[in-house]
Amino acid sequence: MSILIISFFLVIILLLSYLILWRINTRKYVSSGTVASAYDSWTQDKLLERLWGEHIHLGFYPPKKNIDFREAKVQFVHELVRWSGLDKLPRGSRVLDVGCGIGGSSRILANYYGFNVTGITISPAQVRRARELTPLECKCNFKVMDALDLKFEEGAFDGVWSVEAGAHMNDKTKFADQMLRTLRPGGFLALADWNSRDLKKQPPSIIERIILKQLLEQWVHPKFMSINEFSNILTNNKNSSGQVIFENWNSFTNPSWFDSIFEGIRRPNAILSLGPGAIIKSIREIPTILLMDWAFKKGLMEFGVYKCRG
After folding, report:
1. Which domain holds residue 201?
2. Higher pLDDT, 36 or 27
3. How far apart are the C-alpha atoms of 113 and 62, rounded to whole Å?
4. What pLDDT shows up at residue 4?
5. Is 82 part of a structural domain of the chain?
6. Least enclosed by CB within 10 Å: which of 42, 75, 138, 244?
């Protein structure tokens, strides 16, 4: 009996130590520089790429259909292209990928749809890795650039694409303005992002406040915005056609969270081959992933997709 009691308390101590370390090592948003540093680190240790593949975003899971985690990510790109109307653009169209990561979506847009793609990210490490992964014949080029200060002329692109980048933007209005400024009149904007529910209409409970704080501080998010709020920003922008369509894709994307944990079980060598440090790092992310899963399933968070014309 005494051995069981000692074992129980040891487990409790280990769990508490783990949670304390998780809280101490937060990744709070301070500036765009902290976002760049976080993604530089995630890219250089290669853990995220080994587990999530070349697409660092959630997947699309069709109803009543079994689909692999990485296949779901590719499926997501094609679903958003079709839903947004981006596939109506002719081959050779110029498309800007805002927050391109290591270039997974950019390469699909170039190889499958024939677009000339420019991908931008604030992380120099991501740009280097995107270039390494992209064959010379693929019509993609990648640049280090702040999405809130795009160095392109007005109307430079036929399409603008952005997936899960907006949550890292401190100024959502400027984020929208920069994308729409570079989109030609009549061009297509396709955007997906993590949103909170409307917290003004339905204020969060104490527990929800605590969870939102963790979701912000663990993955360098300055603030979340509701789908309606961001839709209004797009609608009222001077470079927008004013016709913004949006949907909540929670039901299609939610399986990604648990799948991202199970991926480490399906492909254990992806972690083990990187050494003991990778095991610790992967375990460190589990509480945040579980909180994300809970928040999206409960409707505290929403996966917003948006489309509009320039």
Report:
1. 27-309
2. 36
3. 22
4. 55
5. yes
6. 138
